[in-house]
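re the bet — no i am not wrong, look at it urself. input seq straight from the record:
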Amino acid sequence: MAVPLLKICGLTLPSQAAAVAALGSDAIGVIGVARSPRYLPASHRRELWQAVAAADPHCRRVLVLVNPSDAELGELDPAHGHQVVQLHGEESPGRCAELARHWQIPVWKALRIREPADLAKAQAYAPQVEAVLLDAWVADQHGGSGHRLPLAWLERFDPGCPWWLAGGVGPKTVGATLAALAELKLQPSGIDASSGVEISPGIKDLQLVATLLELVKAQSGR
């Protein structure tokens, strides 16, 4: 069985981002949404991205946004250091494709799943994005809530593109999560963790990150 990729999201400190990359995380996420407790201003992102690239150039650098406007596109240019944009708002499939063309980098679309029928939305996005990310729906929050998606809803889920699972993933939950998905004959392309490996919003517990990485590898038989 292949090992799911692991993304650690919501980093705010260059030193921690470099350490997480060095531990073997496949991707690191930075939040570019001002109302998030994990928000990192644009003026601080370049230093963090440079630290990640120096620690592991293969670790993908993901900028998380919500409904970016045309007026913001210059500030969000990939020249600042990110390699992927993850959209967590109400962006349509067409808007995702437009932004991917504008920035010339991959776009991931996060889908907040409120009920099983919401999973069907993934098929509309699949032709326009590199991957979709499933997260639990929480009122007035676009992500990072720690709430878990009922895995039984994912039975026969097939979006037609790579997919990531987010929401309450950490060392205490990842084993049962991957086992439950295996029972459904499903395996996500990647796992996205944030609050499950934190000391406080934006500050990670590196031991929890290391443990999560080992558990994902062990659960997948590597």
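see?? The helical segments are 14-23, 42-55, 93-103, 121-125, 174-183, 206-219. told u. also The chain has a mean pLDDT of 92. so pay up
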